[in-house]
């Protein structure tokens, strides 16, 4: 059980290290108006906190830095969030100024602004679009051999799927194909399209579209390329390299490799968890992330569709600011996407 004075000193050390990235010494703390204790008293308490595993001594300084255990104690017991200021609120609200933006563009814009506001890396997991219902199909030829299928959903999501056009397919066949898709698949959930293509659309193509077999197969294959990683949107991916913790080229390489491996990055999210969650260092379960903290929050996008936001930074992260920004952003995103989908 820590004394009130030890709690005060631990908080001052963590806050000071977050600001400066430099070890914090007893003499330095004793000069702060907010720490009304002598340097000798602070030194004794720092030694006790080190013995408890909450602080660590560096090799290059007599000062102390928080340990992973110290950060966890700070986050669980001492963290005080603060209200966002006007400029922050204005930047966040600017995301939702254009009510005509597609859901995907709102999420991309959110990722960029979050990275600007925090100076860390932001990752957004878009909501599962499998429940979205088709609003319309459009097919645009890109060349004699290729076209892009555009699928717009009722949730403002837009899919682009390139597919090969077999030889001797006439433009009128493509036009008939679009008409068939819009007549029979509008209102169908995205996750059900493949089944409907097999059981219903293939027979209609056979009757109305020339050389339907090759065209049908090529189009259907293009629709089956959706994967989980396509729901990830990054902001400030290089921001980690500006943090002094990653001046070591090997550490920087490991973290950047992790960020570029989208299936790995997707593991940062737990869609079953609501609210704000903080993982520190080894809690992330990957060697590359042992010097990082990850703060996540979930959001909703109407009709039970969920997505999530993650901010990735050093363990010396400004937890209070990130939690405040993330809490405000996740609630705002849920509210605006809910309106957007009505």
UniProtKB/TrEMBL annotation:
The keyword Transcription regulation applies. Pfam families: HrcA (PF01628). It comes from Bhargavaea cecembensis DSE10. NCBIfam families: hrcA (TIGR00331). InterPro entries: GAF-like_dom_sf, HrcA, HrcA_C, WH-like_DNA-bd_sf, WH_DNA-bd_sf, WHTH_transcript_rep_HrcA_IDD. GO terms for molecular function: DNA binding. Belongs to the HrcA family. Negative regulator of class I heat shock genes (grpE-dnaK-dnaJ and groELS operons). Prevents heat-shock induction of these operons. Keywords: Repressor, Stress response, Transcription, Transcription regulation. The keyword Protein biosynthesis does not apply. This is Heat-inducible transcription repressor HrcA. The lineage of its organism: Bacteria, Bacillati, Bacillota, Bacilli, Bacillales. The gene is hrcA. Residues 106-323 form the Heat-inducible transcription repressor HrcA C-terminal domain. GO terms for biological process: negative regulation of DNA-templated transcription.
């Amino acid at each position: 059980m820590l004394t009130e004075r030890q709690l005060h000193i631990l908080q001052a050390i963590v806050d000071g290290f977050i600001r400066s990235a430099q070890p914090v010494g007893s003499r330095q703390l004793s000069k702060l108006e907010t720490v009304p204790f002598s340097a000798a008293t602070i030194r004794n308490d720092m030694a006790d906190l080190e013995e408890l595993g909450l602080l660590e001594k560096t090799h290059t300084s007599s000062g102390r830095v928080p340990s992973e255990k110290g950060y966890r104690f700070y986050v669980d017991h001492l963290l005080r969030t603060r209200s966002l200021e006007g400029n922050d609120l204005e930047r966040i609200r600017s995301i939702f100024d254009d009510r005509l933006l597609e859901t995907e563009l709102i999420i991309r814009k959110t990722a960029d602004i979050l990275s600007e506001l925090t100076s860390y890396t932001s990752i957004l997991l878009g909501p599962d679009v499998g429940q979205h219902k088709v609003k319309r199909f459009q097919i645009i030829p890109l060349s004699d051999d290729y076209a892009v299928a555009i699928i717009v959903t009722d949730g403002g999501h837009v899919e682009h799927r390139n597919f090969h056009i077999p030889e001797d397919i006439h433009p009128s066949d493509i036009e008939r194909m679009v008409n068939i898709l819009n007549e029979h698949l509008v209102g169908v959930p995205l996750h059900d399209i493949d089944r409907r293509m097999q059981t219903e659309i293939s027979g209609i193509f056979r009757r109305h579209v020339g050389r339907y077999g090759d065209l049908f197969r090529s189009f259907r294959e293009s629709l089956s390329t959706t994967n989980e990683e396509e729901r990830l949107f990054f902001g400030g991916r290089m921001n980690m390299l500006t943090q002094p913790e990653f001046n070591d080229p090997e550490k920087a390489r490991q973290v950047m490799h992790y960020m570029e491996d989208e299936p790995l990055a997707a593991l940062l999210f737990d869609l079953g968890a609501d609210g704000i969650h903080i993982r520190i260092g080894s809690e992330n379960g990957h060697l590359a992330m042992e010097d990082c903290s990850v703060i996540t929050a979930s959001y909703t996008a109407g009709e039970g569709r969920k997505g999530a936001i993650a901010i990735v930074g050093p363990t010396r992260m400004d937890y209070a600011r990130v939690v405040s920004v993330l809490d405000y952003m996740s609630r705002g995103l849920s509210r605006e996407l809910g309106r957007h989908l009505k």
